[in-house]
Amino acid sequence: MTMANSNKTQWPKLLRRGPMENLATALIAAGVLMMLQPFVMALFTWSFITTLAGVVMFTIVSKFPE
Amino acid sequence: MTSHTDPAGLVSLPEGHQRASLPRVQTGLSDRAIAWLFIGPTMALLLAINLFPLLWTIFLSFTNYRANRPNAPLWNVGFDHYVAILTDPDIWLRMQATAHFVFWTIALQTVIGFGLAYLVDRKFRGHGFWTTLILVPMMLSPAVVGNFWTFLYQPQIGLFNYVVGFFGGIAPGSFQMLGDVTLSPWAIIIVDTWMWTPYVMLICLAGLRSIPDYIYEAAEVDRASNIRQFVSITLPMCMPFIMLAILFRGIENFKMFDMVNLLTAGGPGSTTELASITLKRAAFEAWRTGYSSAFAIILFVAVFGLANIYVKTLNKVKAR
Questions:
Q1: Which CATH architecture has domain B80-319?
Q2: Quick one: average pLDDT of B173-192?
Q3: Chain A residue with minimal CA distance to B91?
Q4: Could you give the CA distance from residue B308 to residue B30 in angstroms, rounded to a whole number?
Q5: What pLDDT sits at residue B312?
Q6: Can you give the pLDDT at residue B320?
Q7: What is the nearest CA distance from B298 to chain A, expressed in angstroms?
Q8: B89 to chain A: which residues are within 8 Å by CB?
Q9: Helix axes B184-209, B235-254, angle to 10 degrees
Q10: How far from chain centre, in Å, is Cα B57?
C-alpha cells in the first residue's frame, strides 16, 4: 500500500476537500450577501467576520485530500 | 555523469593496478540553484509590489496613521477602525449603492450578453464583422468611456437625451441622467453594461461553441422542439461559462472606480458613491489613512472570497 493510499483511508470522510470547500464557499457567499443586503444592519456588521472565516477556511481546506 | 570511482579508497584495487587520474568535475550551479536564480527576481518583485503593500495596509489598519502627517506619533487603535466601519450606517448605504450597481450590471450584461452570443453563434452573412463591431466598447479605456458618455448624457447636446426624447416624445433637455438623484445610478449602470456586455458575450460564445453538434442531432432525432433544446441542452451546458462571467463581472464591479469617478464622482450627493469612491475620499480627501486601510482590507477580503469561488468555478469549467 502506498503512502497516498494509506493517507486516503486514514483521512476522516467528513473532512474531505469537496464538501469542506463547498461549506467554505457557502460561508463566503453568505458573508458577501450580508455585506451587500439592505435589510438588517446587524448582518452588515457581522458580514466581514463571516467572509473572513469563509476565506480562511477555504484556504485551509483546499489543501485537504480529495 | 558518474566519474567518481573509489574516491576514498574503499574498494581495494588489484595489486600493481595504477589508479587512473579522474577527469576533474566542473564545479558550477546546480539545477535547483539555476531555477532559483531565474525565478528569484520575479519572486522578489511579486513580494515587493503585492505582498508588502498588503501587509503594510493590514498594519496601518490597526493604527491612527495619517498620510498627511507622517511625523505624528503612531498609536495602536486595535480593531477600532473595523468596528467604526462595520457599524456606520453611511458605509452601509455605500455598500447598498455598490450592491445596486453590481446586481443590475450583472443581470443586464448576462441577459444581453447571452442573447448576443446566441445570435452571433448562428452563421449569417457578415457575422464576423458584426462580432468585431460588438467587441469595440470592451477595447476602450474606462477613462475614454467615462468622458465621452459624459458628452452623450449632456441634457442640451447629448445624443442619449436626444434619442430618448425622440422615441419617448419628451423634450431632450427635460431630464439629466447624471444630475438626477433617481436617474444617475441607472446612468452608470447603462455605461457599464454598454462597455462590458461584449465581454460576457465572448465567454457565453465560448460556452455555446463548446457544445458538440451530435447532442443537437440526437435531440432532432427525438423531435425535441427548439425551445426544449434550448432549455435542456444549451442553457445547462452553458451554465458554467455564464457563472464564470457573472463572477468575473461581480468581482470587477465590486471594486469599480475609474469610470464612475469620471462620470459622476459619486454624485449627485452620494447617490452613486460606490465603496471604492468612499475609500478614495477617506484616504485622499479626509486623509484618514488607518481608517481607509481597514476599509480596504474589508473590501479585499470580500473580493478575495469571490475570487476563490471564481477559481473553483474555473476549475470546473476546465474539467469539462
A1: Orthogonal Bundle (1.10)
A2: 93
A3: A44
A4: 36
A5: 86
A6: 67
A7: 6
A8: 41
A9: 140
A10: 21
Q: Which residue has the cell 450606517?
A: B89
Residue B233 scores a pLDDT above 50: yes
Burial label for B272, CB within 10 Å (0-12, 13-18, 19+), is: buried
Categorize the per-residue pLDDT at B26 as very low, low, confident or very high, splitting at 50, 70 and 90.
low
Q: Are residues A52 and B301, on separate chains, in Cβ contact within 8 Å? A: yes
Residues of chain B with C-beta less than 8 angstroms from the C-beta of A38? 96, 99
Chain B, nearest residue to A40 by Cα: B92
Q: What is the mean pLDDT of residues B244-253?
A: 92
> Exposed, middle or buried: residue B24 (CB in 10 Å: 0-12, 13-18, 19+)?
exposed
DSSP B170: S
CB contacts, 8 Å: B86 with chain A: 44-48
- Identity of the amino acid at B202: L
Most confident range (mean pLDDT) of A9-18, B168-177, B271-280 is: B271-280
What are B175's three cell numbers?
Answer: 431630464
The yes-or-no verdict on residue A1 having pLDDT over 60 is: no
Tally Cβ neighbours within 10 Å of residue B309: 22
DSSP string covering B25-40? PPP---HHHHHHHHHH
Could you tell me the three cell numbers for B302?
470580500
Residues counted in chain B: 320
Closest CA to B303 of B242, B253, B245: B253
Is the per-residue pLDDT at B24 higher than 70?
no
Alpha-carbon dihedral sign for residues B316, B205, B255, B183:
negative
CB < 8 Å to A47, chain B: 86
Q: Does A35 touch chain B (CB under 8 A)?
A: yes
Considering only CB atoms, A48 lies closest to which of B86, B99, B312, namely B86
Q: How far apart are CA B137 and CA B278, in angstroms?
A: 27
Report yes or no: B315 at the A interface, CB cutoff 8 Å: no
